[in-house]
């Protein structure tokens, strides 16, 4: 099984991103737009996982007792080399702590942590070509949109299924975060 760990989006934020994508998208834009139901904030990509590793990582993640995470989308950005349009997520201290602890828990189960610095984001579209599509898309963005904020009260262990029209994700396990608002 192919796994990753991530934070789901609030319904309001998903709606805002859907409306934005609908305004930016055009029939022949040369981009592969991700489906709203697949939007998430990745904490750790695990990749191909054995049943033993699955059991290990699920057990380690259930041992984490961390605070809920404030989520705020900051702006639209481009990973030009990769040909990707993203919504950047503010790296709040609670989010960075959660990502570090998730990565450490996965490391105990034999997963190698990502070498690049953590850059929280939501992938909205990928270029199918050489990147000209991103230049045209940049021109459509007149000003940065404003997004709703929310507090993530849980994170998920997802299984990814690759398909011709993109990936489909299923939640394998949910992990609560501690809310201090009570």
Please, could you describe this protein's structure?
The protein contains four helices and nine strands, in the order E-H-E-E-H-E-E-H-E-H-E-E-E. The chain is α+β, with helices and mostly antiparallel strands and 182 residues long. It has one domain: Cyclic Phosphodiesterase, Chain: A, CATH 3.90.1140.10. The strands form two sheets. It has a five-stranded antiparallel β-sheet. It has a four-stranded antiparallel β-sheet with strand order 3-1-8-9, covered by helices on one side. The longest helix is centred in the middle third of the chain and has 15 residues. It is globular and about 45 Å long. The termini are far apart.
Layout of strands and helices, then pairs:
Elements (H helix, E strand, L loop, with lengths): L1 E7 L2 H14 L6 E3 L6 E9 L2 H12 L6 E11 L4 E6 L3 H15 L13 E7 L4 H9 L8 E4 L1 E10 L2 E11 L6
Antiparallel strand pairs: 1-3, 1-8, 2-6, 4-5, 4-7, 5-6, 8-9
């Amino acid at each position: 099984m192919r796994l990753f760990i991530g934070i789901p989006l609030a319904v309001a934020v998903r709606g805002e991103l859907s409306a934005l994508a609908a305004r930016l998208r055009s029939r022949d834009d040369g981009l592969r737009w991700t489906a709203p139901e697949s939007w998430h904030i990745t904490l750790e990509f695990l990749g191909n996982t054995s049943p033993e590793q699955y059991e290990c990582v699920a057990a380690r993640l259930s041992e984490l007792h961390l605070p809920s995470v404030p989520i705020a989308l900051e702006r639209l950005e481009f990973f030009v080399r990769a040909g990707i349009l993203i919504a950047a997520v503010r790296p709040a201290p609670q989010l960075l702590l959660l990502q570090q602890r998730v990565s450490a828990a996965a490391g105990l189960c034999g997963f190698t942590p990502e070498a690049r610095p953590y850059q929280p984001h939501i992938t909205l579209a990928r270029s199918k070509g050489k990147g000209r599509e991103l230049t045209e898309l940049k021109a459509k963005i007149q000003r940065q949109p404003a997004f709703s904020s929310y507090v993530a009260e849980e994170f998920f262990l997802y299984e990814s299924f690759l398909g011709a029209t993109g990936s489909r994700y299923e939640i394998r396990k949910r992990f609560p975060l501690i809310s201090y608002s009570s």
